[in-house]
Amino acid sequence: MAEALSFAGVGFSYPGAEDPALRGATFSLPEGAFALVAGPTGAGKSTLLRCCNGLVPHFTGGRFEGRVRIGGRDTLEHRPRTLATTVGFVPQDPGASFVLDRVEDELAYAMENLGVPRGAMRRRVEEVLDLMRIEPLRDRSVRQLSGGERQRVAIAAALTAGPRVLVLDEPTSQLDPQGAEDVLAALARLVHELGTTVLMAEHRLERVVGTVDLAVGCKAGEPPRLGPPAEILAWLGAGPPVARLGRILGWRPVPLTVREARRAAGSLGRLPGPPPRPAAGLPAPGEPLLRAQGLHADHGRGSVLRGVDLELRRGEVVALMGRNGAGKTTLLRCLVGLHRPAAGRVAAASGRAPEPGRDAALCPQVPEHLLYRSRVVEEVAVTLRARGRDGAEAQALLEELGIGPLAPRHPREVSAGQRLLVAVAAVVATGAPVLLLDEPTRGLDPEVKGRLSELLRRFAARGGAVIVATHDVELAAALATRVVLLAGGEVIADGPPAEVLADSPVFSPEMTRVFGPGWLTPEQVARALGA
Length: 531
Fold this sequence. Notes:
The chain has 19 helices and 19 strands. The chain is an alpha/beta fold. It folds into 3 domains: 1-86 and 163-224, Rossmann fold, CATH 3.40.50.300; 97-155, no CATH class; 288-528, Rossmann fold (3-Layer(aba) Sandwich). The two termini are 46 Å apart.
């Protein structure tokens, strides 16, 4: 079978960086492969993907060695624009790739540049709209789309040029579970029916590991490895929650999918029930810190929130969930005081409207919107000093999130997941009693996600409140004391995770799917089994 993509001794260091982002990458993918790039935050996954179409080194500068060939073309001899018919690329921030305002125009843009005949262009746009299930978005402005909608449009725009290789950096990170399944099914059709080669980086392994047939593992300081997903994830010590449970219980082979875990669990007998609620180490909720009453909000395309009532109390960690476009981001912006509601009111503990940064602080979906200093440590220290605190406390906060070594670096020089943690640290430094985080686990591996979760638990345990808008059901299962589910701008469920996530075919975590309602995390199951 012909090679679609090959790396030969590829190494790369960013300008001014002490350590290489990529070392000795040597592997090849055959045509029609569906491959996952996995590894810890900051291990070089995005760098590897950007080598595939020449963005590294043509647009980054830095020291590059070795050769990358895609579709038989050397990326050092062809710039990214000339590789556009061979490789499509979708970055972590899909909005960064948009050129035009209207969705349908954005889909046609690449084909116009390539001189595709008008009739073929129109047909291709219609096919991709249907493939990605975004036809209702065709006349919308890309600026009015939710994060997940932008992600699907960006993938569609990359597909219209008809590339033989499609490279995606965390394509499901902002998608609700059903949207992620739809996108992965569309990618699988491209692979199996059209022979397209797909290479994608992803941290939500539970979503993708049952779909891909190859994996590229990245570890800092080591050459990437190519192999079967089970082999590579074992080398990385990574995997979805069912794999974590399998390692705890000593299952061989370690399951990677819910189906495999169900088979392995058949030998366990019945678990004791009802399952205990995971101990979050938090006190009982205290007095309200933020309250929304009868909240209605508009956002460009019309009504987004419809009569929302919501109360956040001391000691709570609330997971705000719902499909893309349900109104989660708009609700967070109303709660923090950045979006004026059309009706209803939001009140802080004092009874007045919340003041951003004082009563509540928001970490947005795009953390770069908060970052403007030349050093990571200064992003946090400047906020502390504005509050009359010692700027030296910034280093301790960075250490708490596991990013202390990044302190002297420029925020734009670190990985997307690391930038997110810097933004979270800057938000915590405001001292606001309520933290609001919009998709805060994008680009984070399980270990880093665990450190973030511990920080949020401690914040709530000290008397604060946290609300996290997320599509990450495993995060909600492990972290939240309460889940609020939005649909059509209305609250349709509000309660403990074990109840709200129990019967959902879309939002249930892997442990629920294996063992039944109430079981949320591998650690909870392992404790029940005495492991």
